[in-house]
Amino acid sequence: MPAADILSRQSGVLESHLKQVNMTSSQIIINLVVMAKKIMESDDLSKEMVELATTRKITLPKGFDLSKPTVDGVNPMLPFTRLFVGSTDATGEWVPNEYSFKNFPGAMRHLYKSAEADVHGLTTVLENLTADAGKGKVVRGIEAAKLKDRAVNAKPRKGNGAVRNYIPLAVSKVKPVAVFTAPPELVPVNEDGYALVTVVQVGPGKYGFCFGTAENADITSLIADGYEFHKERLAAAKAQVTVSMDKVASKKSTSTAAV
User: Fold this and answer.
1) What is the DSSP string of 165-195?
2) Whole-number Å distance between alpha carbons of 138 and 207
3) Where are the beta strands (DSSP E) in the chain?
């Protein structure tokens, strides 16, 4: 199946929303939400989405429905984002963009609830969003949408201690010090795509990843505290490159979106 079959088959309705040359994260989120609404209105597009997910090896939860807050315990915008934002590697395998599925799904779920259904309307909504992040800090745009979504959909945290509800934006720009592969059910992620894992030292300077912690653990506070402690010694990931979305359907292109 071509890289963006679900877009190229549609008679310009969805494709026109995505053909922007220098898309920001906000623009990508807005256009994905517009596309999600279009897909849920069309049985044909819904079927194409499932076919594309099979081709790209993206697992959609049972009873997948983008209009629901959660499907089988998962924010449906998480696999939706993994399906459309990423690139193909040298072997032709689809690789989702890690930054996007950590930072987009919560904001997308919040915007999906809006009565607005086109790019202009959702842009206005996102540009005017603000949220209180505590300690006198006010966040706007994507971060405000994520915070509002978390306030409604986040699971109660365990324990009685004070809980932060805001992960520093800089965390999403940190380069992972190690990457490993594991069954998704072994490392449950929270609504932002983050997880906690148990690490054991197996030798001098060598560590083993054993299993994940329950997804309702206090991930937010631990990530915020950990980042503050280590931020001076963490390497930032390279800046992402934005590309034209009209390359999505091109067989020569390997990128569908970048942020």
Assistant:
1) ----GGGGGBPPS------GGGS---TTS--
2) 39
3) 86-88, 94-96, 130-134, 137-140, 197-203, 206-212
pLDDT attached to residue 155? 66
Do the beta carbons of residue 216 and residue 158 sit within 8 Å?
A: yes
Residue 183 makes CB contacts below 8 A (sequence gap 6+) with: none
Q: How far is Cα of residue 55 from the mean position of the Cα atoms in its chain?
A: 20
**Would you call 33 exposed, middle or buried from its count of C-beta atoms within 10 A (0-12, 13-18, 19+)?**
buried
Nearest-Å Rg of the Cα atoms of the chain is: 19
In whole angstroms, give the CA distance from residue 110 to residue 238: 28
Residue 99 has phi, psi (to 5 degrees) of: -60, -45
Mean pLDDT, 10 residues at a time, the chain of 259 residues? 45 44 78 92 89 88 89 88 85 82 88 93 94 85 90 65 60 76 77 80 82 72 76 65 44 40
Name residue, tokens 């993994």.
82
Are residues 195 and 215 in contact, defined by beta-carbon separation less than 8 angstroms? yes
Does this model's pTM top 0.90? My answer is no
Is residue 208 exposed (0-12), middle (13-18) or buried (19+ Cβ within 10 Å)?
A: exposed
